């Protein structure tokens, strides 16, 4: 049986062994219960310090990772079947300001999984078909007649990634506060030859999701941030996840720092306008990150057929190096690790792990155990490059679900 399908498990009334263990070993307060006054951030608080069991194991992993990787902060939340195992915040947001679970940080490509689910919900509602050409709604888009909605959501269009195009990173670092427009970003990708015939290979391109956001707006006649709120954020109860059309972050803020420009400096409010579609440039908190992992990963907003598309929209078997697409770009999509509809299928897990100028975050969901892991980190002066939150998530998964490791993609 294909790994992508293994995750599509029916819900049962049985309590897993892990759930039973946690019920005995984790006697602390719930961090995810809504505050009576509905105040921003007040619903997401640390658990009481664990004395034993899986919660203590998770906390020790986070503490060790913070020390080993010189992380300024680590915020973590783990749930089973929506019930808290542990919620904790280590380190500082700024000097002398402790990190807290309620602090907001950049959501990055996690919003792409929400766009993928919106697209599949529109399929369920009979408003679109995945194989409809995007030219139906965006007639002026180059290659629009050859590119379908499915290809946008699964990143198989052949469009180059503007983020890795020559000169782009230099422009971002030279002026990290610049406001980029969707038109500018898409033009970079559509202004060069396709890497391959649409639908025949796989490569990640941020442009796919900028275009998908524009298409979703045209299909529904609704601004993307409003659409995401209506179709995903609202139904999942993600009250602390929101779009901003500016670099602002709602308080309380988890501040970020990076040495990417040669000196360790604050990067919290560097402009994320280039990262994805306008309307999907989001901030969130750790409780929403865990809830979103479970909501998207379980397919609770989708029909069974659309959940199957979420897990594998046709990407398995794609991804091979060619004369025009090197092996570092056209990555192999196998049954074990492949790209779904805006999500990564990593073994038995559905995951995303964004990285943005000093912020890293990771969410992962294991349907077989209804286990959700959410991690956010910020960098210290000597933090190594890479997805530190994802590394911590992998370590937590190894501890709590040893038979279900989270492999790397590509």
Could you characterize the architecture of this molecule?
This protein has 410 residues and is α+β, with helices and mostly antiparallel strands. The chain is built from 12 helices and 14 strands. Strands 1, 2, 3, 9, 10, 11, 12, 13 and 14 form a 9-stranded antiparallel sheet that branches. A 3-stranded antiparallel sheet has the order 4-8-5. The protein has a two-stranded antiparallel ribbon with strand order 6-7. Helix 3 (53-68) packs antiparallel against helix 12 (388-400) and helix 4 (110-124) runs antiparallel to helix 11 (304-311). The longest helix has 16 residues, at 53-68. The protein is globular and about 60 Å long. The chain starts with a helix and ends in a 10-residue tail after the last helix.
Features:
410 residues, alpha+beta, 12 helices, 31% helix, 16% strand, disordered N terminus
Give the strand tally.
14
Strand content of the residues, in percent?
15-25%
Secondary structure: helix percent: 25-40%
Write the H/E string, N to C: HHHEEEEHHHHHHEEEEHHEEEEEEH
Tell me the major beta sheet.
9 strands, antiparallel
């Amino acid at each position: 049986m294909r790994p992508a399908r293994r995750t599509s498990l029916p819900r049962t009334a049985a309590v897993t062994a892990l759930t039973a263990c946690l019920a005995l070993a984790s006697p602390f307060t719930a961090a995810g219960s809504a505050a009576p006054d509905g105040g921003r951030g007040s619903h997401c608080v640390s658990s009481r310090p664990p004395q034993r069991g899986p919660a203590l194991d998770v906390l020790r992993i986070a503490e060790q990772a913070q020390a080993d990787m010189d992380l300024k902060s680590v915020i973590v939340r783990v749930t089973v079947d929506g019930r808290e195992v542990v919620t904790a915040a280590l380190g500082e947001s700024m000097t002398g300001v402790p990190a807290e679970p309620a602090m907001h940080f950049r959501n990055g490509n996690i919003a792409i999984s929400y766009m993928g689910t919106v697209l599949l919900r529109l399929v369920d509602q009979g408003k679109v078909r995945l194989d409809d050409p995007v030219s139906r709604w965006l007639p002026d888009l180059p290659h629009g007649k050859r590119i379908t909605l499915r290809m946008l959501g699964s990143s198989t269009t052949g469009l180059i990634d503007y983020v890795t195009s020559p000169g782009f990173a230099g422009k971002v670092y030279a002026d990290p506060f610049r406001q980029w427009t969707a038109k500018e970003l898409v033009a970079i990708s559509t202004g060069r030859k396709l890497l391959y015939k649409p639908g025949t290979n796989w490569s990640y391109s941020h442009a796919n999701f900028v275009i998908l956001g524009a298409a979703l707006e045209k299909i529904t006649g609704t601004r993307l941030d409003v659409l995401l709120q209506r179709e995903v954020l609202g139904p999942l109860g993600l009250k602390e996840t929101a779009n901003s059309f500016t670099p602002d972050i709602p308080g309380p803020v988890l501040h970020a720092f990076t040495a990417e420009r040669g000196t360790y400096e604050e990067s919290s409010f560097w402009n994320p306008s280039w990262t994805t579609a306008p309307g999907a440039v989001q901030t969130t908190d750790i409780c929403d990150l865990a809830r979103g992992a479970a909501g998207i990963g379980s397919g609770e907003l989708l029909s069974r057929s659309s959940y199957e598309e979420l897990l594998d929209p046709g990407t398995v078997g794609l991804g091979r190096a060619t004369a025009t697409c090197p092996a570092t770009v056209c990555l192999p999509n196998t049954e074990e690790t492949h790209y779904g509809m805006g999500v990564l299928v990593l073994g038995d897990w559905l995951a995303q792990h964004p990285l943005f100028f000093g912020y890293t975050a990771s969410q992962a969901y294991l349907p077989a155990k209804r286990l959700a892991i959410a991690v956010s980190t910020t960098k210290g002066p000597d933090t190594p490059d890479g997805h530190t939150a994802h590394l911590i998530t992998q370590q937590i998964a190894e501890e709590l679900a040893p038979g279900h490791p989270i492999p790397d993609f590509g």
